[in-house]
Design goal:
Blueprint lengths: L16 H22 L8 H4 L1 E9 L10 H17 L6 E5 L3 E7 L4 H8 L5 E11 L41 H7 L35 H13 L5 H7 L9 E6 L5 E6 L4 E2 L3 E8 L6 E7 L1 H14 L9 E5 L2 E4 L10 E4 L5 H13 L5 E10 L1 H30 L2 H27 L5 H30 L4 H33 L3 H31 L3 H4 L9 H4 L21
Antiparallel strand pairs: 1-3, 1-13, 2-3, 4-6, 4-7, 4-10, 5-6, 8-9, 9-12, 10-11
Helix pairs in contact: 1-11, 1-14, 3-4, 10-11, 10-12, 11-12, 11-14, 12-13, 12-14, 13-14
């Protein structure tokens, strides 16, 4: 006699629904309590629902490095932008990459959102360059050399007609002479006792202590090009100012624009940079006790202090303007102080700073420069009113979808619709509490695509109920009573539900991985609700169905229970014929 199989439960065996229901009840209570404990009673809303600004930044390759746009530099840029924005006190800002060369910055509507917007795309490439020549910011007409007597000029450099001194030309070499390089090669963040550059004369002629000597080994073509660029530069035009500092290597001389103490634009011919923003350890805005003006105070690293001390020692021995060094931020001269003494450990950047501009610069310098230059590709601003309208529209769409599902369930499944509605309520509670806790937990924000994902999930959850109900009906059609039918239908329905939800979850996971931005909100919500569908069906729908099968209303097959054998076309169980019975058909004899 074969031993009974004790390792496997018979298909019609009764389960214990109380444990599963207790578990899911404890989970709902714990999640609800976690919401109150965290002080997050509502899900965090995204930019499109709460209002705010979305900025798309496009990365550009740096000069001399065509492979600068890579995953490492993009992730570094994301971290720096996050620290800048958070340093301003902007809460719940989101910074993430999009594709290979774009960064999406979502800034919620708030007091510092505009200030954060101004900083997110600032590259903050900081260099300290020696000043070789300074002139008015307007284009300067090229002047002949003193030896060109046929032009009407005397050899002493004075025009016979006007008596004005001749403009000294910029250096005749793209690489300054050894003396000029040594004098001004150093440049570092700020300096103590900075002296603003005097306002140039109306004639717009460059000012310098002496004409830099040409470098015999220099590139004559590059020198001439730089000289023409300096003379033609018009700092009153924004496009010209931006173009002046683009695509320039730190080791090359360049031109730049900046405002003097009177707010007038000046143009500078600058030598190669030797010290950069990486040598700055910390920077903060403060008020100068002597002048009462806002300044940016910087502390250098050990290596930066040595560079700064060496350079300021050399510059302090030069004559104006070659004793100045320009503090160049993203190609623009923010300050061009004169060096009067040797400095080392710290320095100050002074200029026409307001409190906000000084704090902005200090914040940018503290968190470092971006490894890439970025172009502001698009800016989208959503008002809170528009976001509220979109949220309302999404909720209305969800309510309509839910109502249609309930109407269908009631019309087709009658009493079984009660189980489906209770399961939908449990699923909604779990989804809401988890979304609320994910906001402070991982920064999840409910946006409009995420709302769409939750609406789609209603159909996925209802589909699981329908699969189970139809399996039960199939068992009743075969002549079984309700309680055995509920247990025998579950294994078959369970396999179908798991396969269906696995496919939905796989699609959501792939969508989340291959997409970026708001579409990920849809994928994340769809995946989350798919997992919760499995939890609800296993821990709530099946146990409740087991309990209700013991009630007379359902067990007796009431017409409104949705399980009436007559309406389902149930047939009595088939009976086998006796062995050895005489066949009724003579042909079988």
């Amino acid at each position: 006699m074969a031993a009974p199989n004790r390792g496997r439960r018979p298909a019609g065996a009764q389960s214990k629904p109380g444990r599963a229901l207790a578990f899911i009840l404890i989970a709902m209570v714990a999640l609800t309590g976690g919401m109150f404990w965290a002080g997050q009673l509502t899900p965090r809303l995204g930019i499109d629902l709460a209002g705010g600004t979305t900025i798309t930044l496009e990365a550009k390759n740096t000069v001399g490095n065509k492979n600068a746009i890579n995953e490492t530099n993009m992730n570094t840029a994301v971290g720096i932008i996050e620290r800048r924005v958070n340093g301003l006190g902007v809460s719940e800002a989101e910074v993430q990459t999009q594709g290979a060369k774009n960064i999406i910055v979502n800034i919620p509507k708030g007091t510092n959102s505009q200030q954060a917007r101004e900083q997110v795309g600032t590259t903050a490439q900081l260099y300290f360059r020696p000043v070789l020549t300074v002139a008015a910011g307007t284009p300067t007409a090229p002047q002949p050399t003193p030896s060109a007597s046929p032009s009407g000029k005397a050899k002493d450099g004075k025009d016979k007609a006007t008596g004005n001194k001749e403009t000294v030309n910029p250096p005749s070499s793209a690489k300054p002479s050894a003396t000029a390089t040594t004098q001004g090669r150093a440049v570092t963040d700020g300096l103590k006792a900075a002296t603003p550059t005097p306002n140039p004369s109306a004639s717009g002629k460059p000012k310098t202590s002496e004409t830099p000597k040409p470098n015999p080994s220099g590139d004559a073509a590059g020198t001439e090009k730089l000289q023409k660029q300096f003379l033609a530069l018009d700092c009153t035009k924004k496009t010209a100012r931006v173009a002046a500092g683009e695509n320039v290597k730190p080791s090359d001389p360049t031109v730049g624009c900046g405002k003097n103490s009177e707010g007038v634009w000046e143009k500078y011919l600058l030598g190669p940079a030797e010290v950069n923003g990486k040598d700055v350890d910390d920077a903060k805005a403060t008020i100068d006790q002597q002048s009462g003006q806002w300044i940016v105070q910087m502390d250098f690293t050990d290596a930066g202090s040595k560079k700064f001390q060496k350079i300021t020692s050399r510059l302090s021995q030069q004559q104006p303007p070659m004793n100045q060094f320009a503090i160049v931020l993203d190609g623009e001269v923010v300050s061009a102080p004169s060096v009067r003494q040797t400095l080392s450990a710290n320095a100050e950047i002074s200029g026409s700073f307001t409190q906000q501009s000084a704090q902005d610069l200090g914040n940018i310098l503290s968190y470092g420069a971006l490894p890439l230059s970025f172009h502001e590709q698009s800016v989208q601003t959503v008002t809170a009113a528009l976001g509220g309208e979109q949220l309302q529209a999404g909720l209305i769409a969800g309510a309509i979808g839910l109502a249609l599902v309930i109407i269908y369930l009631v019309a087709y499944y009658r009493g079984l619709a009660l189980i489906a509605i209770l399961s939908l309520i449990v699923s909604a509670i779990l989804t809401y509490t988890i979304m609320a806790l994910l906001g402070p937990g991982i920064g999840f924000a409910l946006n409009l695509p995420a709302v769409c994902g939750a609406i789609v999930a209603i159909g996925i959850t209802a589909d699981s109920f329908i699969v189970y109900f139809e399996r039960i009906r199939d068992e009743i059609r075969e002549g079984r009573t309700l309680r055995p039918a509920v247990e025998r239908a579950w294994p078959r329905a369970r396999r179908t539900i798991l396969v269906s939800d696995f496919v939905s979850f796989l699609a959501a996971a792939v969508l989340f991985i291959v997409t970026v931005g708001k579409v990920q909100g849809f994928a994340f919500t769809l995946g989350l609700t798919t997992v919760l569908d499995v939890v609800v069906v296993f821990l709530f729908t099946k146990p409740v169905m087991t309990l209700l099968a013991r009630k007379k209303f359902f067990a007796s097959g009431h017409p409104w229970s949705g399980l009436d054998p007559k309406r389902l076309g149930a047939k009595p169980p088939l009976r086998r014929s006796r062995r050895g019975s005489v066949p009724t058909d003579p042909k079988e004899a």
